Amino acid sequence: DAGVIQSPRHEVTEMGQEVTLRCKPISGHDYLFWYRQTMMRGLELLIYFNNNVPIDDSGMPEDRFSAKMPNASFSTLKIQPSEPRDSAVYFCASSPKTGGRVIYGYTFGSGTRLTVV
Amino acid sequence: GQQVMQIPQYQHVQEGEDFTTYCNSSTTLSNIQWYKQRPGGHPVFLIQLVKSGEVKKQKRLTFQFGEAKKNSSLHITATQTTDVGTYFCAGNSGAGSYQLTFGKGTKLSVIP
């Protein structure tokens, strides 16, 4: 398996522009997570999906952020309009369905480094 | 909400010295996971601890889960330059939640 695939690896955009980050989870994984990593705040969970359905989006910073998962093999995180404070590394991760109460480890993608100027 | 604190934030060691990072949760955890992120890389899953007082070993790495399931530690014996990176603990509260709350990590530097 190729693992979790994210694109693009790097994105530089001007303030006010729309940015779309993409993620392909590992086939068969039921859970998909979007995290943001910054030096100041560390790894923050933005939103996660179970079987393509958003379960918890309480970490989404504001209405400028939106995420979709139209099918089991694709998810997007969109920022519109982008602002310099959105600059960060955005990771997508996926995880298999659990057999009980214990969750499995996440497999992270390589991330998208977003710079908003 | 749940908070996971990790100390120290940075640790510089001479190659061959031991290293330990500590993780504390504000709430009782269902399980805890550990990840390693190399510079410029992405977090990679190392291990999961589930039982109270559990101890697991992976070669030179020893992981412990506290009796109260609110703290954990990672100990590396005789560090090597390949151990360089940031080590994160991540807690899951259970109760139907499948999300992890990550600590801010301990960045390990190994001086050859």
What can you see in these coordinates?
The complex is a heterodimer of chains A (117) and B (112). Chain A has 117 residues and is mostly beta strands. Helices cover 0% and strands 53% of the residues of chain A. Chain A is built from no helices and eleven strands. In chain A, strand 5 and strand 6 (53-56) form a beta hairpin. Chain A is globular. The mean pLDDT of chain A is 94. Chain B is mostly beta strands and 112 residues long. In chain B, 38% of the residues are buried. The chains are: A mainly beta (117), B mainly beta (112). Chain A binds chain B through residues 31, 33, 35, 42-43, 45, 48, 50, 55-56, 91, 93, 95, 98, 101-111, and chain B through 30-31, 33, 35, 41-45, 48, 50, 88, 92, 94, 97-105.
Feature tags:
heterodimer; A: 117 residues; mainly beta; B: mainly beta; 6-stranded mixed sheet; 5-stranded antiparallel sheet; 0% helix
Number of helices of chain A: 0
Strand content of chain A: over 45%
Tell the overall outline of chain A: globular
State the major sheet of chain A: 7 strands, mixed
Written as H for each helix and E for each strand, in order along the chain, the element string of chain A is EEEEEEEEEEE
Q: Which runs of chain A of at least 5 residues are low in confidence (pLDDT < 50)?
A: none
Share of residues in strands of chain B: over 45%
Radius of gyration of chain B: 13 Å
Calculate the mean pLDDT score of chain A and round it.
Answer: 94
* H/E series of chain B: EEEEEEEEEEE
Summarize the helices and strands and which ones pair or pack:
The complex is a heterodimer of chains A (117) and B (112).
Chain A: E1 5-7, E2 10-13, E3 19-24, E4 31-38, E5 42-50, E6 53-56, E7 65-71, E8 74-79, E9 88-95, E10 107-108, E11 112-116
Parallel strand pairs in A: 2-11
Antiparallel strand pairs in A: 1-3, 3-8, 4-5, 4-9, 5-6, 7-8, 9-10, 9-11
Chain B: E1 4-7, E2 10-14, E3 19-25, E4 31-37, E5 44-49, E6 55-58, E7 61-65, E8 71-76, E9 85-92, E10 101-102, E11 106-111
Parallel strand pairs in B: 2-11
Antiparallel strand pairs in B: 1-3, 3-8, 4-5, 4-9, 6-7, 7-8, 9-10, 9-11
